[in-house]
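Appendix B.2, paired examples.
Example (i):
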Amino acid sequence: MCGEFALALPEMKPARAQIDIDASKCTTPMACTKCLNVCPQMVFHVMVLKQEKFKETDINEPGAYVIIPLHRWKCTLCNLCVDNCPVDAIKITLRGKN
């Protein structure tokens, strides 16, 4: 009976996009979140770099958070994140075909 059902997982395709985020420009991503809000594929993820026990991390503190392209393989190269980044921190290039 166990072999009758298979778990359907999304197909992991190789990433077509090379997404580079300049952390020296994007210092307070939680205060901005424009790339998170505008991306139709939800490519980006916020990662906390500074955590203190029993203390909330300030979203305006530079370097406390970082944006990463966690789901890079979902990127459709629409460039909405690039166009909406107020500090010009995101660069997307097409990877060569393997």
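Example (ii):
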Amino acid sequence: MLPEKLLHEATVLLLKIHVITGWEIPQKELMNILIDQFTKKILESYSNLNVDEIEFIFRNKPIEIKEWGKAMNISLMDEVIIPYMEKRFELSKVEEQKKQVDYKISEEEKEKIDREYQEFLKTELGQRLNPKI
């Protein structure tokens, strides 16, 4: 994402987070600093998340985070985003492990499957499905 677009997206995202959480938006001077720091934080720590996902995280944040009325800051954002990222990472690891489960088939089984496939190709249905033979 281009820096100008990210700056705009971060600004809109901060406003949405304010609406979702009720966290106070800082005064204009501090808001400019918050936008700058939040943009940097997105690039440094949340780069594997997109803006829609960050918004989703806040809409569905854990109930135990009750910082209502606090001033918005990067530390509060981490309290919501980091647990989500950790859970997402763990789920990714589980999915990756599932992919790595290597189903071993013996040579004997491979030969049997090949023989049965060749026999199938000789049948009328096999001929219709694979007319090249």
